Amino acid sequence: MADYIVGDVQGCISPLKKLLTEINFSYDSDRLFFLGDVVNRGENNLETMKFILSHQDNFDMVLGNHDIHLIACHYDSKKIKKSDNFEDILDSNLREKVVEYLLSRSLALHLDGSILIHAGVPPIWSKEDVFYYSDFIKSNMQSSDSEKFIDSIYSNKPNKFYGSLTMIEKSTYAINALTRMRFCTELGEIEYETKGNFDHNPSGYKAWFLHKNEELGNVDIFFGHWSTLKNFNEPKRYHLDTGCVWGNKLTAIRFEDKQIFSVDCN
After folding, report:
1. In 10 A of CB 170, how many CB atoms?
2. pLDDT at position 158 over 90
3. CA distance 168 to 154
4. What is the CATH number that goes with domain 3-264?
């Protein structure tokens, strides 16, 4: 039995199946964890979701920003953008089943003491904070008011975390941190615009993983989201989005020994 963690698939079903063949994935005993953004921008979003839904005993995932965007478009909380191409899901008779599955997923997962997320963790947060807000958001996304909740948290503000914020505001911040954050201040103020490498940081901000975090310094964190991240070698931080949807590679890591596996996506 082995556990594997894979970066952003984004509807690229062929590289995903190729990667699973490469690692000799056992559907009888192995597990696969997706680091979010399983859909959007790639060519086969519906087929990707069918594949995930057909292997729920082996597969699990955290939500990424594109997955949440699909949910919001399903509810008409957000309009489909020109760059979106998950209409194959929205036009399918599996639409409700796909959205129901995504609504049942978390923003963060435990794996033997490690944290799996899509984007980042604010430097002012502990592990308890990560899972407290992940669990709160998941419970609201599974409630009868999930549509209202999704509509209320779909915002860039607040991009700072304060104890005095309402739970809706804290949830908005948490979703943006865990699914969208690349750069932030040491107090966790999020900057959304910059998408280049970590050494091209805007003034006053650093990559989230470069800030000191006493609570999480010895915790392994696995994340995706940042396809432009290069020359990354930060202890206890494992980045797995290698830009498959842009024609680069799809990458997975075997959790037990941290061996990396990649396949070409061109």
Report:
1. 21
2. yes
3. 10
4. 3.60.21.10
